[in-house]
Amino acid sequence: MKISGRKHDYAVSEIIGTVLLISIVVLAGSVVAVAVLSQPQAQKIPSVSTVTSIQSQTVYIKHDGGDALQNGTYLILVNGNDLTSKFNPPATWSIGETLTYTLPGTTPPSSVQIEYIGSGSPVIVASSSFGPAGPCTITTSASAGGSISPNGTVSVTYGGSQTFTISPNSGYNITSVLVDGSSVGSNSTYIFTNVQASHSIAASFALIPTYTSISPTAGPTAGGTPVTITGAGFTGATAVTFGGSSASFMVNNDTSINATTPAGSAGLANFVVTAPGGSATGTYTYVATPTFGGISPATGPSSGITSVTISGTNFVTGATTVTIDGTAATNISVSSSTSLTATTPASTPAGSAGLANVVVTTAGGNSPGGTGAYDYYVIQTFTVSTPSTVPTGATSVQYCVIGGGAGGGYYGGGGGAGGFRIGNITGGLSASYPITVGTGGAGGTNTGTGQGGSGIASVFSTISAAGGGGGGSARGGGTANGVSGGSGGGAIETSGTIGAGNTPSTTPSQGNNGGNGNTTSSHYYGGGGGGGTVAGGNAASTTAGNGGAGTTCSINSVIYSGGGGGGGYAATGGGTGGTGATSGGGGNGGVGTTAGTAGTANTGGGGGGGGSTGNGGAGGTGIVILKYY
Question: Cα(363)–Cα(220) distance, rounded to whole angstroms?
């Protein structure tokens, strides 16, 4: 039993031990399991790529790649100091985002680090160090026309400053200063501060433009005048203005610009050339356009040299010209802005006649009006018979035609003046006209009737001026009568008959009658020959009659066709012979044995009558005067 019992106990003990062993193993497995399950896992360290830069005192940190960082899992250390909050980080700092902070003071940081603290022990995941390996350099350059100081390659301590002075040469200006290729203006100084990298500075200079002259110096207010501006420093010019208004222009070279003036107001105006080196200023005069009011006299000979007065407006002293029919007038004198005098040029072509345009020119332009304002004329004077050629451009002609004067009688009356005809032909002129110049009549002699010979007619075209009538003679035979003509001859003796002239009552009127003679105790006194204006004078008992006065030709203001004076007997202490119309070419009568004086050639003047034994004077030849215009 015991034995059995021991076995049983042994068996029981064995079972119990087996169970206990299994329990221990299970427990041990549980403990191991618990130990294994409760062991903490190691956290992942983020991978971050940053780009850090510093400009002056401002720090820029850009998340350039890798894992995003959660706020609170990292620190931003600047020079080892935690400045995370200063950068205002977002909840999640992701790729492309930049954190910034400006440090106080002037000393730049030497290091910037990103420290990850999400793994228990801090881990630096990004780091940037700053600080020179040596000094920074600044490279300088300057164009012609100035300098920069200091020049060349300048060494600057990291974080230090450097001042540069830019100095233009005389006559130059600073046009630009470039720092690292970007313009910083055109100041004469530039200061680099907190230098942390190498830089460049370049200065450019340009010649200050100068003005020498402008041509022309004046022009019309309407503008549009081409001008040339000379000077220096014009290369690269950007603007030209006149009185503040822009002008079109072209730079020819550094010393010359062509421009076209804009419109402006009358008077001085500044013009300005703007170029890289500055601006040049000069003056230009805007001139109002002149006007033409009139010209006096309005006619003149084709040979010119006629002094005229021109009225108008906007005349300029010393800067006004005048052309007539396109040819420049001379001796221009501007007395005021509204009046000037000038001397006319000859007509063009030479010797032509007709209307001509008058143009007054200043820097303000040419005057309008003045078309046909001046009339050139050509005066032709014929003393012998020859055709008249009509001048180029003539449309009208004025004429004075004077016949030959008659001779005075032997011991007789004065010869009558040649006929005098005046008038005009307007339009429809021929190319030429026949001209006949009448000769004067011969003086009476102590032969035949003793009467003076009549003058011959002068003719222009169809216009005929009759010759004067001869003076009567006391030689007898009824010859005491005057002869009719353009103007009649004077009679002698009381019973003589006067010569009839073409008096104003006849058509066409050409002259006047001769004067009556007179008889005293068988002594005779002759009447004067008729003149172009009045009849011959009648003789008195002891005095012969005077010749009639002549007529003025309006073409040249000369008096023609004076009658001859009567001749007569002169007792001792007695009367005298008649006086001829000397202003019209008539001859004086003779006294006693004295012959009468001849009429003046080419006046149509009558010859004077002879004295008691004197011959009569011959009549003057006629003349034809034409004025083409």
Answer: 6
The SS3 of residue 370 is coil
**In whole angstroms, what is the distance from residue 191 CA to residue 161 CA?**
7
pLDDT tens, residue by residue, 302-347: 999 999 999 999 999 999 999 999 999 999 999 999 999 999 999 9
Secondary structure (3-state) at 592:
coil
> Which is nearest to 469 in space by CA: 450, 488, 496?
488
**Cα 570 to Cα 593: distance, rounded to the nearest angstrom:** 9
Separation between Cα atoms, residue 402 and residue 423, nearest integer Å:
12
CB 408 within 8 A of CB 441: no
Q: How confident is residue 42, by pLDDT bands cut at 50, 70 and 90?
A: low
Write phi, then psi, for 583 (nearest 5 degrees).
-70, -15
At residue 161, the 3 state secondary structure works out as coil
First-to-last alpha carbon distance for the chain, in angstroms, is: 191
Residue that is written with structure tokens 């035949």 in the block: 448
Location of structure tokens 């000393």: 107
Tokens representing 24 are 């221990």
Q: How far apart are CA 438 and CA 432, in angstroms?
A: 19
Looking up tokens 């001796």 gives 331
Tell me if 567 sits within 8 A of 591, measured CB to CB. Answer: yes
Query: Could you tell me if 229 and 247 are in contact, meaning their C-beta atoms sit under 8 angstroms apart?
Result: no
DSSP H or E run through 10:
helix 2-37
Reported pTM: 0.65
| Contact predicate 382/437, CB 8 Å | yes
Peptide bond into 168 cis (omega under 30): no
pLDDT for 506 beyond 90? no
**Angle at the Cα of 98 (from 95 to 102), degrees rounded to 5?**
160
Give the integer Cα–Cα distance in Å for 29 and 22: 10
Cis ω before 104 (30° cut-off from 0): no
Structure tokens at 290: 């002149």
Q: Which helix (H) or strand (E) holds 612?
A: none
Q: pLDDT tier at 131 (50, 70, 90 boundaries)?
A: low
CA 528 to chain centre: 67
**Closest C-alpha among 521, 525, 549, 501 to residue 610:** 525
Question: 383 is written with which tokens?
Answer: 């003393």
In single-letter form, the type of residue at position 549 comes to A
Strands 299-301 and 374-382, bridge-based pairing: parallel
Give yes or no for a contact between 71 and 92, defined as CB atoms under 8 angstroms apart: yes
Average pLDDT over residues 617-624: 98
Give 505: exposed, middle or buried? Use CB within 10 Å, 0-12, 13-18, 19+.
exposed
Distance, in Å, from the CA atom of 618 to the CA atom of 455, rounded to the nearest integer, reads 9
Query: DSSP state, 98?
Result: E
Continuous segment of H or E residues that includes residue 2? helix 2-37
Q: What is the DSSP letter of 84?
A: G
- Contact at 8 Å (CB) between 264 and 221? yes
CB-CB contact of 566 with 546 (8 Å):
yes
In terms of residues, how long is the chain?
Answer: 629
Residue 401: count of CB within 10 angstroms of its CB: 32
CA distance 338 to 332: 13
CB 292 within 8 A of CB 312: yes
- DSSP β-bridge partners for residue 177: 203
Three-class DSSP category at 322? strand
